[in-house]
Amino acid sequence: MRRVLLCLILCAQSASTAAASELAIFHTASFGGSRSVSLSLAEGGPAFDFDVVITLSEFDGDGTVLYRDGGRHQASVRCIAPAMVRINSADYVIDLSTRPGTDWKHDLWAALCTAPVS
Fold first, then answer.
1. Which residue(s) pair with 68 in the sheet?
2. Cα-based distances in Å from 37 to 15, 21, 23, 60, 66
C-alpha cells in the first residue's frame, strides 16, 4: 500500500511548488525531517454518482435491429444538484422540468437517478 501511495505521490509531483499551492490539496504525506509531498486536484469538478457506457441501436417498427453502433460511449451522471451529465470533458446541466423523451441526457439522468431503490 505504501508503495502504491508513493507511486501516486511521485507521479502527481509534476506541478511546480508555486502552482501546487494554488490547487486544492486533498492529501499530504510526510517523509521525515521537513519533507512532505501533497496531492492536489488539477482538474475535475463535481463528483459523479454513476460512470456508464452508452450504446446506440436503430430499430424498425417491428423491433428488428437495423443498425448497432459498435462504439462504447462513456458518460458520467450526477444525481444531486446541480444535476448533470458529463460526456468527454463537457458538462451538461440537466433541466429537471424537461419532459421525458425530449432530451436524451435528461432521460439518462432520470433512468439512473430516479429509479426506485430497494
1. 57
2. 11, 12, 13, 58, 55
